Every structure is written in structure tokens, then in C-alpha cells.
Amino acid sequence: MSNQWDERFSKQEYVYGTEPNAFVQAVLPDLPSSCEVLSLAEGEGRNAVYAAQLGHRVTAWDYSTVGFDKMHQLADSRNVKVKTELVDLTQEIDYKKQ
After folding, report:
1. Which of 6, 28, 33, 56 could, after both became Cys, cross-link 66 (CB 3.0–4.6 A)?
2. Which fold has domain 4-88?
């Protein structure tokens, strides 16, 4: 199921880097510890991994298996775990099936 995001993330380097974006850095430390965090359109995982480093239980949704591979590598390098679910957010989701 190759797509434009798989192609974009296929380079060895991280397209957006490995550090979380400024908004995530500003907001996540204020959450109570051990929250459940859903990270949407997560790409290569920089924000999800950061949330996991803060002690949160993180699920990341994205449509790129290549991005997920890089996310798991980043998570492993930082000794954290992130649960991933392959979701095409451009499509309607039937929440009744969830």
C-alpha cells in the first residue's frame, strides 16, 4: 500500500527532524502523567516519541508504513514504545467498528 507519504519518508534522514514541534513541546509537559495520547498524522514519530518519553501511553495514527518503521527506530533509540495504527485520515472512519 505505497502512497505519497511512504515515498516522502523513504529517505534515510527524518523529513521533519526527530525533535517534537514547538506546540507539542509547549503543551504536553502540562498534561497529567501517564495520560493516553492519540497522535494523528504522526508521520515519522517525533511528537509521539516525545509524548512517550514524558511517560504517556501513546497511539499514533498515520498512513505511512515507512514512517512507522522510522518511528519505531526512533522510539527504540530512546527506550520508549509507541503503539501504531495504519489509518487513512482522508477516508471516513466507522467508529462503530472500533
Report:
1. 6
2. Rossmann fold (3.40.50)
CA distance 24 to 54: 11
Q: Which three cell numbers stand for residue 81?
A: 514504545
DSSP the chain: ---HHHHHTTSSS-TT-SSPPHHHHHHGGGSPTT-EEEESS-TTSHHHHHHHHTT-EEEEEES-HHHHHHHHHHHHHTT---EEEE--TTS---GGG-
Pairing of strands 36-39, 83-86: unpaired
- Candidates 50, 60, 15, 56; CA nearest to 35 is 56
pLDDT averaged over every residue in the chain: 92
